[in-house]
Amino acid sequence: MPVLELKNISKTYDNVTKALQDVSITVEEGEFVSIIGPSGAGKSTLLRSVNRLVDATQGAIILDGQDITHVRGKELRRVRTKTGMIFQHYNLVNRLSVIENVLHGRLGHKSAVSGAFGFYTESEKEQAFFILERLGLTEQAYKRCDELSGGQKQRVGIARALMQEPKLILCDEPIASLDPNASRIIMDYLSDINKSMKITCLLNLHQVDVAVKYSERIIGLTAGRVTYDGPAQKLDRKMIYEIYQSHEGQLITDMKE
Amino acid sequence: MEKRRTNEILLFQKRKLVFTAAAAVVILLYGMASFVTEYDTLLGLSSFPKAFKWIIVNMVPNAKALERLPNILKKLTETALLSVAVTVCAAICAFFFALLGSKTTRVNPVLAGSVRVVAAFFRNVPDVVWAILLMFSFGQNVLTGFFAMFLTTFGLLTRTFIETIDEVSNDCVEALHAAGANYMQTVFQGILPSSISEVITWILFMIETNIRSSTLIGILTGTGIGYLFDLYYKRLDYPSASLVVMSIVILVILLETISGGIRKVIL
Fold first, then answer.
1. Which of B3-7, B52-56, B105-109 has the lowest mean pLDDT?
2. Distance from CA of B203 to the nearest CA of A (A)
3. CB-nearest partner of B171 from A91, A110, A118
4. Are residues A74 and A138 in the same domain?
């Protein structure tokens, strides 16, 4: 059974800007899928329509066998717990400690009051520390998030997403603000989570080489339409030029050879 | 290269022109205003020494004024505590209103718009005017001063808290929503921790401001330190009146120092 099915999704902003046009994607359980494409192609919109941070204008979203296109209120909260999200700018609450930020992943599972005042159960706290240990952040647990480096912040982001016990992790440009070394660490963790915990990963990436190296499958998005959907190995240079609507020698990836 | 140089020269010439024009406009306005109000600049400047001399002769606290110090301090404490109470009450109300008015946390756009309008109204009517208006309903009473300051403080803090919330919380609110947090959880776990230091800074600032304005309002409502000042002043007991002013100044400076310290710790 597919974890995620997007059926003919379209999104128009302010009745003018067409961010997505008739996008259909099926993601199977345990897949590691990267979406590539130029800025403004609709990658972020696509990812945000999966957990309904953005409401698609048309089409249906089926997550884990449930049509979530129109769910609201409590049900929407419950549905969102199934998808963890990782952001380019980490989106942590910088003034809170690392452990508090990780525990935020539980908010969707908790009652309004105990969540608001931060009453977490012992087992939730234990789980948070277990995840932190796994991501190599045990020493940082009580530090405030604004004291961390970019790579560490992103690992806190991953920990928060894992805390939700998600079926699917959405990553919106997870390494776009990181140096090459931190980028590799983050991608390795994501890849490891995907393999060992069988959590499906759907990523937006700007780095074509990274996408090809880590993912099994790549989706190319150009001006709101899917222009490529297939295995990473079959993505040839001609295809890449088509996705980015450019010509031989114009892309930074061309510089290597 | 040639062209760039000319552009550069043009840019600096333009900037110079703007400064000269601005200076000319200011001088012209000053001249016109002096003419209309029949204000003589030289006479104005030359009366300064005279005024200072009068202040030094008449307004230095003497032994009799110092006898009144315990009473002054009692009223001063009363006024300071009132300002703290007003500011804290107003800040709590303002924070919840600001949530309704902020772009990231508003419940609906019409409500957000009306919150902004109400806040602007309360803020833009000076507290002294509020005091005069409220005197009709509450009379010469501490409550009049309390509500007068409450309304302006509430209006001003709502506005600044809306800006703080807008500035601070877009990213983390998105992340918390994505994790399935509801409105209340987002506010208490995301927005409040992110904005708390700015909120406290503003509260401290408003406490200082309110001590100053409560003096003025006290003159109107016959309460607190303002009443005492009015009393001594009208009795022509200038040394005591100046002691009142000095004690207010010292209190405000003290508070500024303390709040500066608090700010350093929380930031």
1. B3-7
2. 19
3. A91
4. no
Averaged pLDDT in 10-residue chunks for chain A of 257 residues? 92 90 94 94 94 93 94 93 94 94 95 92 96 94 94 96 95 94 95 95 93 94 93 88 83 66
Q: Which of A45, A47, A91 to mutate to test the interface with B (most CBs of B within 10 A)?
A: A91
Cα separation of A101 and A162, whole Å? Answer: 12
For chain B, what are the domain ranges?
A: 10-40, 68-266
3-state secondary structure B56-98: HHHCCCCHHHHHCHHHHHHHHHHHHHHHHHHHHHHHHHHHHHH
**Domain match, A120 and A221 both:** no
| B98 closest CA partner among B13, B157, B147 | B157
Same domain membership, residue A242 and residue A170: yes
Q: What is the pLDDT of residues B102-143, one digit of tens each?
A: 988 888 899 999 999 999 999 999 988 999 999 988 888 888
Of the candidates B185, B196, B197, which has its C-beta nearest A116's C-beta? B185
CB contact under 8 A, B176 and A51: no
CATH number at residue A18: 3.40.50.300
Cα–Cα distance between A226 and A222 in angstroms, integer? 6
Query: Over 80: is that where the pLDDT of B169 sits?
Result: no
The angle, 0 to 180 degrees and rounded to 10, between the axes of the packed helices B238-266 and B192-221 is 170
Could you tell me the CA-to-CA distances from A34 to A20, A167, A190, A192, A203 in Å, in that order? Answer: 17, 17, 12, 15, 5
- A95 contact B CB<8A: yes
Quote the pLDDT of residue A83: 95
- In this predicted structure, what is the pLDDT of residue A255? 62
Confidence of residue B12 (pLDDT cuts 50, 70, 90): confident
- A142 close to B (CB below 8 A): no
The CA distance from A115 to the nearest CA of chain B, in Å, is 6
pLDDT above 70 (res B261):
yes
Q: Which pair of tokens denotes residue B51?
A: 């005024």
Chain B CB within 8 Å of residue A110 CB: yes
Predicted ipTM? 0.91
Question: Is A85 in the B-facing interface, judged by CB distances under 8 Å?
Answer: yes
Instruction: Kindly identify which residue of chain B lies nearest to residue A52, measuring between CA atoms.
Output: B178
The token duo for B217 is 């309002």
Residue numbers of the domain that contains A41: 2-82+166-256
**Domain co-membership, A148 together with A194:** no
Nearest CA in chain A to B168: A93
A15 and A116 together in one domain = no
Contact criterion met (CB < 8 Å) for A91 and B174: yes
What fold, for B68-266? Answer: MetI-like fold (1.10.3720)
Whether residues A123 and A15 share a domain: the answer is: no
